[in-house]
Amino acid sequence: MLKELEVENFAIMKKLAFEPKKGLNILTGETGTGKSIIIGALGFILGEKTSADSIRSGSKRAVVEGVFEIDHIVAGLIEAAGVEVEDRTVILKRVISTDGKTKCYANGSPVTLSFIKKIGDELLDMHGQHEHQSLLKVAKHLDLLDGFANCAPLRTKFSTLYKRYHQLKEELDKKKQEMHLLKEKAELYDFQIKEIERAKLVEGEDAELLKEQNILENYEALYNNMHLVYNLLYEDENSILNKLSIITKNLEEVAKIDETQQSKLESSRSLLYETEDLSREVCKYTDGIEFDPKRLEEVHERLAMIEGLKKKYGGTISEILKYGAELGSKINTLEGSDEEILKIVRELKSMRTDLGNLAKDLSEARKDAASHLEKQVLEELKELGMESARFKIEMESEPDEEGLVEIFGQKYRTKPTGIDTVEFLISPNIGEDLRPLRKIASGGEISRIMLSLKSILTDIDRIPILVFDEIDMGIGSKTAEAVGEKLKKIAEKRQVICITHLPQIAAFGSTHYQVKKTSRGGRTYTELKRLTKKERTEEIARMLGGKKVTESTIETAKEMLKKEK
Length: 565
Description:
565 residues; Rossmann fold; 3 domains; 6-stranded antiparallel sheet; 17 strands
């Protein structure tokens, strides 16, 4: 609901504060006092077009600020835009300067005009000669009809299946593309797999081959060094082994005389034995050294082949083997892809059948509901003095050869809401063709048509604030009383603000405000006052009898207020 509206330097208003309450808020006053300007200021703050002409003469800018109590849905929209919300309240502010430029704010944060409009669409409907009317938006008509028809479960089921269908279709298209690319490369993959398999690679073999290559390429140096070592250990006359033999024999003689030298003898013998073992190992190794050009060539070829595979498939044998395994997995996927694609195609076909049945059920439910809604609207319009009006809900489905949904052999263009487009049409007077609601010229007619729709759809349409301007234009007292009754009924569940010149409507208000125009210092000012019970009686009496208030009009006013409590 709107908790407070502050207006500064807007039109003829210097400074004005409006604090509407719950229920039906009535604004009255003589013609030209500025009642509609208050509504215009409210429209301005919610994004309606304006110009620098709306700035009070002599001022540099006009400022309008509104404090709104919001629900969790609107709070979520605001927070999604990065604006903080506290206590389910939003303060919207809009400023216009003399250069025609405007600035918008939400809870003190700068926001765009489109954001203000988006939030305004969720908060308020202004009926009369205003842009801010949700029921004039064709896109809203289908939602309202579905709400009236209690189609929410069926529509949700359809939209969920519709979304799932397109997700699966996208998955199928992606899979087909992947399979197409895979088939194009299948021959190459097969060649690469066979090349890797033929190599019979073993992890770590390249390191071992490099060691072997090093030995084969340096066989001569190995032989010469090992042969010299053998001679020094064993073959030479003054070999280490001969010298150790002499040392050992001398230590044996010493140990016979001095037992304390036995350990040295044991050490010498150990060295002698180890030297004999080393000599035999060196001899054996030296005898085995030979130049094998064939093996060296094999090693070179194997290493060259491994290096070639590394350049193609990975920097290590491990990476080459991993790449080969991945190719094998792709080939296996390709082999099973046709069956998988066929399975998805069958599932999509089944989903199209289900979507067709759901779309048919939705359309039938909508047609049935449209007939009942048309009758109810016409009854409401008659009560509001529009006996000659005609109201029609136009439903259309667009044939489409490529359409998703097929019903009785005909394919239709399909949206998440089904195959139907819905628009409310009206003919206010005899002899006039049915036309879209948005093309109705009269503000009074628009207001009464909207009032009839709101009366019926009050539990469906979630807009919390309704503003009616010019609703009493061209109607008599009997119709005015019907209008008042409907406004009061709607106000039980919505905050309603209504400008009226008719006492029969004003008497139904739960809160009554009077708008006056005064002059001070050569300037005009608009003032707004919440009326007491006594003041309200006087205002109703004024509306009944004009400027002259009599005892008779006072008594009539009292009776009217008493009656409409």
